Structures are given as C-alpha cells and as structure tokens.
Amino acid sequence: MGILSSIRQRIKYFTAKSDARFNERADPKVQLEQAIGEAQDQHRRLKEQASNVIANQKQAELRLNREMGDYEKLAANTRQAVLLAEQSAKEGDTAKASDYNLAAEEFAGRLITMEHDIEETKVLVLQSSQAAEQAKAAVAQNAQALQAKLAERQKLLSQLDQAKMQEQMNTAMSSLGEAVGEDVPGFDEIRDKIEARYAKAKGMAELNSSTVSDRMFEIERQSMNTEAQDRLNEIRAQLGLGAGSTSAGQLEEGQDASAASATSAPAEQPEEA
Which stretch of 46-60, 74-88, 162-176 has the lowest confidence by average pLDDT? Predict the structure, then answer.
C-alpha cells in the first residue's frame, strides 16, 4: 500500500510539473481561443439537449390533442349507443336495445380507460412543459454567459497585446544601459564616445574656420590697399601731378615733421636798433 501510494504521488507530481511547464510555455492567446471554443461547444451541446426536451414537450402536446380528439369521438359514439338503445326499447325491440346497451357499455369502458390515459398525458405535458421552460432558461443564461466571454475575449486580447508591447519596451529599455557582450560597450559608453568625437570635430572646424577667415581678411585688405593706390595714381595723372608725386602718406609725414621742428626751434631775438 505504501509503495502504491508513493507511486501515485510521484505520478501526480510529475503530471502537475508537466502541466506547469506547459502553461508557462503555452501561448495565452491560443489557450484563450481554446477556452472560447470549448464554451461554444458546450453551448451547442446544451442547445441540442434543450431542443430534445422541447421536442418531447411538443410530442406530448400532440399526443394529448390526439387523445382528446379520440375521446370526443368515443363519447359521441357512447351517447349515440345509449340513444339507440333507448329508442329500440321504446319500439319494443328488446334485442336491438340489448345490443345497443352492450355497445354503450363497451364505449363507456373505453371512455374510462381513455380518461386515465388523458390524465397521464396531461401530467406528462405539464412536466415536459416545465422541463422545456427550464431548458430554454438554461440556454438563454448560457448564451448570455457566452456573449460575456466573447466580449471579454476582445478585452483580454487587447490587454495581451498591450502586455507584449510593454514587455518588449521594458526589455529594450533595460538593454539600453547594459553591455551587449563582453567586448561590446553599452549604450551610455557609446554615446559618450560619439559626443566626444563630435565635440572634437566641431572644435577643429572652428579653428580651421577662424584661420582661414583671418587669411582671407588679410588678402582682402591688401587687395583694397592696392586698388586704392591705383586709384590715387589715376587721380594724380589726371591732375598732372605725375605718378612720382608725394603720396598722401608722405605729405602727412612731412607735415608732422615740420610741425615738430617749428615747435622745437627757439624764437629769434629782435635786432637792436
């Protein structure tokens, strides 16, 4: 007994363990569709059973209607036999009156039997009607439950899609700051390297841009001075001063030198008379 109990416990354990592994690996969407399919099959079987119950009710009602019709005919025949027996007795035909009375008694016996059958059929109709109503109510209730499950299925599928998307986002976000491998840096480290390289390139570009700009400005200034000298030479030629005349810069230097000598020289004393 102990060995059998231990074996059963092990079988239950491995069965539960395999079921747990299956549930972990199984797709919830597939399991949900299987559950909905099972609920639909159960509703279909319930409808079939309910239809059989309702069919029994209809058959009982048809049987009761048929028995009631036969009973009315038998009651009419019984009444007719009694009338004919009474009429024959009045006419003095005792033989016919006896035959009609026997027929009336036979009809009356059939009426009694048929009344019992009708009462039993009425009970059967009542019971089948109650069963049919219960079956209809069960089908309607199960239909509502099935509709609720179908509506909830859409909600669950939407939640499942959102959960999958959120899980993917969580995985992606958690992997951003983690190293992909031993030899592969993480996202933050790569970002720092790229930003440092970008900053260095921008700095070199600014240095190169400033050096070139200075040289270009110097070239432009020399070009402007050359053009200015050429224009002054043209003006001197037009005035007949000649190209070798003193330039404006030399004139200014001469004027500055004359002023300096005049300031430094001592004032002459007036001669005595």
Answer: 162-176
